[in-house]
Amino acid sequence: MPVYQAPVADTLFVLNDILGWERHGNLPGFSDATPDVVEAILGEAGRFAADVFLPLNQSGDLEGCHRAADGSVTTPKGFREAYAQFREAGWGGLSADPEFGGQGLPHTLAAAVNEFLSSSNMAFAMYPGLTRGAIAAIEHHGAPEQKALYLPKMVDGIWTGTMNLTEPHCGTDLGLLRTRAVPNADGSFAISGQKIFISAGEHDLSENIVHLVLARIEGAPEGVKGISLFIVPKFLPEEDGRPGARNGVSCGSLEEKMGIHGNATCVMNYDGATGWLVGEAHKGLRAMFTMMNEARLGVGVQGLAISEIAYQNAVAYARDRLQGRALAGSKHGEKAADPIIVHPDVRRMLMTIRAVNEAGRALILWTALRGDLAHRAEDPKVREAADDWMGLLTPVIKGVLTDKGFENAVMAQQVYGGHGYVREWGMEQFVRDARIAQIYEGANGIQALDLVGRKLALNGGRAIQAFFKEVGAFCEEHRSNEAMAPFTKSLKKGLNDLQSATMWLMTNAMQKPDNAGAASTDYMHLFGLVALGYMWGRMAHAAQEKLAAGAGDDTSFLENKLVTARFFMDRLMPETAAHLARISSGADSMMALDADAF
Amino acid sequence: MPVYQAPVADTLFVLNDILGWERHGNLPGFSDATPDVVEAILGEAGRFAADVFLPLNQSGDLEGCHRAADGSVTTPKGFREAYAQFREAGWGGLSADPEFGGQGLPHTLAAAVNEFLSSSNMAFAMYPGLTRGAIAAIEHHGAPEQKALYLPKMVDGIWTGTMNLTEPHCGTDLGLLRTRAVPNADGSFAISGQKIFISAGEHDLSENIVHLVLARIEGAPEGVKGISLFIVPKFLPEEDGRPGARNGVSCGSLEEKMGIHGNATCVMNYDGATGWLVGEAHKGLRAMFTMMNEARLGVGVQGLAISEIAYQNAVAYARDRLQGRALAGSKHGEKAADPIIVHPDVRRMLMTIRAVNEAGRALILWTALRGDLAHRAEDPKVREAADDWMGLLTPVIKGVLTDKGFENAVMAQQVYGGHGYVREWGMEQFVRDARIAQIYEGANGIQALDLVGRKLALNGGRAIQAFFKEVGAFCEEHRSNEAMAPFTKSLKKGLNDLQSATMWLMTNAMQKPDNAGAASTDYMHLFGLVALGYMWGRMAHAAQEKLAAGAGDDTSFLENKLVTARFFMDRLMPETAAHLARISSGADSMMALDADAF
């Protein structure tokens, strides 16, 4: 069975030495999260993940979920008990509003905890993950009485949540959706239609399931401007808030999937189910986006999470498996062969994963902190800048960290040779599970379009200009520091490529939008490399400063950071030039074939 | 259920217009394979693949193989009947020696047919595929009476073959193997030990299974120099050649795998089983390499094959699925939305796969032809040069086309969005099946080491110098041809990068072998891009010549070739520079961490 140890020390390094956690102690929520409290919470979360979630990961994959003839769904053996422990320990409400029973801690901390839980059991972590998204939508767009009715239950976890967007003919293009909402006399609506791919749509973990459903009110405009968001609970709440009569929504079938078998992915049938409008009529998409942005960052975390556990296991195997001898002469003459970690090509795979994971973790926490600042900072300028960063980086984190997460899981599997292909070792599950993160919550091609087609131009390019300025200033600041030069030189080169690509888009995409579409995925990955490289620059600098000050027990941890930073610059940053070359080639050869010619 | 139509026209274009098929008509075997015979055979093979193999692909994956308590194994429903049809039609003996009942046609043709069969059902095509490898080993290294006894049955297909290398503690490093061979009085050996990951190790398709087994004769030297190859049939042949008594070899269990569920991957237990030495004692590795080289090209074909069927289905879906509108304005205003094939990012994925597939097919057939020349050409210089090419390109084809095959299957799956993740559409099976090709027959890291550590230096670098000369001469020849310039310019740039990387290796890897290991995978992929780019150069040139001569009905086929060639140069060739940059960074940051620091 795969092993897992939560990367607590690495997370603390990011929080304390990169984010300067203590500097934000004056913000609401942060005052309770002193460094020692944070350390205790992370340690506890890591143990919980390893002790409670991890043992159910492989068995949950093998068993999957079951739907009975009556439409009820049971989760794999052990999930109910583990979920009860999860609720009891209060993990679901870590960063939720204290008004609704949450602990009000920073979202940044919740993001770190979410990584640990997703590493140890991604399919399981999705149940509370979707609930968090539903909570966010109700919190931001619900009426006070909706908040009062639903949020305490959902924050507690006794009720869970879902997002219902997709229909058989309608995924990315929500304008096509057909689910209907007919007003009832009492102000509620009767919802009818079919939704597919609904994660956690039906299960046995909670006493009620709160579906957030996109539907079209009778007579609403066509397209996305006629879509509204509804709360449709599985059981209609009684006056006292207890679950009452069964609502007209049910699970028609479970999807047979490639992975995340522990999560029940449902076809949900709405047959005149009672629903209540959330926010304004026909403005459902805006509310859904609140939920989706939350979810997209969470999916980026999943990419990192699978990559991390896959890495840890590949390392353990590479240390243990004896095969061949080191090229430069045997390292372990006393053994029948050397452990494969001596081989450069095995190192290449391990170092690549490591270099992405550590920077990915920093980027997620850095971005999550900006998310906290966007809501909690006093200065409106700070809030605006933080919100800009969040908007700009959300598609990058989702798209790039899930693409890399999958590639890394595949690489970690490769370290095992044939043993990676058989189920027993658990590596092929990581590959199957990681794959969905590239697809759901907006396929990665959609993230790239969101970045290039929307986020770049917002507010006259304010966010991207601020990003350029921030990264450029960092390079400039350390230009004359010889120890930093290997890092800032590569980073500056990457930044230049990104700026050139941005210029190219400004010049070529206006009159020919296909040039933007043709560039989008490469642009997103180019952006991702620069953002990750920026994190490596910051981490290298922090490591150097601490080493110079005398780091004691942390010395090798910090020296390893410098090695990994160097590896990132040597081996990953060169890709920025290839991205720029592809982007600059434009859409011509991509679009020239007739659709029938394929 | 996935669709499939064998790419017969594309294969004929390569054979006739790139390889100049008719020019080789004087070679043994080729004289019977006139262009019209070739066309008829390919057409028939394509129909057979689509009609007989394809319908069992998804069902075979779902059902898998079953092992009974007595160790017998049954293949999925329909496999027995389909295999009988396969035998009856004589597909297994297409290029086998007529002395043993084969049709003696060129291996090049067999490679093309193998692509079609592997596309339509890779797990199934492995049964005859492994038999072909075993035939090759016996043909090259077996004694005359072994050939007479086994080959006619194996060519017919009534007996099948396997390769038994791997043991639980021993994969890449065959020197560690423990399976023992004790001489019997009659000249045979008693073989004992356990082999794992044995594809087609036990099944119900054939009346006998001929295991080729690596084992160590009692008292043999340690390491790879003490390994011998044995024939160990499941049933001991009687005097008259009919299968007689059961031998002491049995299937201990079936591996639970990520994919290729239709193929029985067995743990094989040898318990004093009777075996006969093939070739010389302690020279088993050489014989096994004959088999493995055959198999490695076959695995490269699998990479292409899965990529091709995945592409065809992604194209069908992209034409059919309505979602969103073209960026430059709706193309199908009469429909609720445009088919997603209008979107540049969908095109990017489809064109990438296409550009790799068409060049990959050309490279495989080009290399297979050199394989035929190596055996059949009269001029020893021609044979030598052809053999050099084969040796050099085998690891590239295996490593690069299976890495690309997997990436392409993933990309094709991505075109489907969420529908790609559910089993129903069959796309996730292609991903799971394609994955093994990167691992077996020498994991791709081993292919890269074979290329960099062995093939480059052989005969003073004769093969690589000939490759540089051939590709360089092609660029030079068309340098002043304006229509060819876009292609030769990119190709020349790629070739320069490859030559620089080779120089770098020569300068830096001698005194520090880790620099070779650290460069190997990047070098293999750099090589692959240049080899594929060279194929695109040749295809573009052939297309231009034919268009200039008036191509009639073929006009759009040829124009599409030019577009795809352009796309390859725009979008795939830029990667060569990134590979070179990574290679040139050396092994330092890759190897610096202590093994305990990971």
Keywords:
homodimer, 598 residues, alpha+beta, Butyryl-CoA Dehydrogenase, subunit A, domain 3, 5-stranded mixed barrel, two-stranded antiparallel sheet, 56% helix, globular
Description:
Chains A, B: GO terms for molecular function: flavin adenine dinucleotide binding; oxidoreductase activity, acting on the CH-CH group of donors. Chains A, B: InterPro entries: Acyl-CoA_dh-like_C_dom, Acyl-CoA_Oxase/DH_mid-dom, Acyl-CoA_Oxase/DH_mid-dom_sf, AcylCo_DH-like_C, AcylCo_DH/oxidase_C, AcylCoA_DH/ox_N, AcylCoA_DH/ox_N_sf, AcylCoA_DH/oxidase_NM_dom_sf. Chains A, B: This is 3-methylmercaptopropionyl-CoA dehydrogenase. Two copies of one chain form a homodimer. Chain A is of the alpha+beta class and 598 residues long. Helix content of chain A is 56%, strand content 12%. The first copy, chain A, has 18 helices and eleven strands. A five-stranded mixed beta barrel of chain A has the order 4-5-11-7-6. Chain A has a two-stranded antiparallel ribbon with strand order 1-2. In chain A, helix 9 packs antiparallel against helix 10. The longest helix of chain A has 37 residues. The mean pLDDT of chain A is 96.
